[in-house]
């Protein structure tokens, strides 16, 4: 479920990215390379949603008794917040006020 949720969120972010860049991409539509890049953003969005749908469809076929400890696998994920979400660790509320600069 955590991987599925992560894929859904990434798909949402990619879709938002596509929406924000859409007008700029239309202005550059005469440039084939730019048009190709815009199509790749759409493909990434579709594939992320497709993977989340795949994970959602697989979930009912996994026996309830099966348990997987995600800690070892999550340790190889270099993004700390994502690793925590994949392990099922509750989200920490950001202590930064809205609009404050936050580096990755």
From TrEMBL:
User: Domain of life, per the record?
Assistant: Bacteria
**What is the protein name for this chain?**
Uncharacterized protein
Q: Which organism is it from?
A: Acidiphilium acidophilum (Thiobacillus acidophilus)
